[in-house]
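Dear colleagues,

As part of the handover before I leave the project, I'm documenting each prediction I ran so the next person doesn't have to rerun anything. This entry is a single chain, and its sequence is reproduced below.
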Amino acid sequence: MTEYINLKTPLSDSDVERLRAGDKVLIKGILYTARDAAHKRLMELIEKGEDLPFGLSGQLLYYVGPSPAKLGQPIGSAGPTTSYRMDIYTPTLIKMGLKGTIGKGGRSEDVIDAMKRYKAVYLAAVGGAAALIAKTIRKARVIAFEDLGAEAIRELEVENFPAIVVNDTKGNDLYKEGMEKYKLSS
């Protein structure tokens, strides 16, 4: 049976420092959602010196644009979106206290450097499992930029939200390690 590490948000430095690329985690607590348009607006608020709609310290951002909720459910399908589109914004948010992001695909060297410097991690959620991931979300509410529709910032209350550590605070990269193993075996 696969071993999971249980994480409860908000995360501390010690929470993320114990994680290693390849670790499987189950997250409980609050996640915030944000995609391209929301990140752009967050940066505008930061540049103006205005308050953000939620505190970044110890938090996780999930890159998702959920589908509408079915009757009686808090959210519709909620699969990850491609992370590199947020890479231009992510180092700033990590420097401000963000402890991790969740998405799919690789990250830039700038993001990896910020994770090492400020103690943060990147987690992958499994694409194609959007309906299953949605079942781990207990509550969802829009907290900012409602006009962005699916890209509005939401606060999600999750329980046993599954993810895999791709980049850890030491700079390890599960994707690069996997490619190296593949090269060695072929």
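Strands lie at 5-8, 24-33, 60-62, 100-103, 121-124, 137-144, 153-167. The CA atoms of residues 7 and 15 lie 8 Å apart.

All the best with the project,
I.
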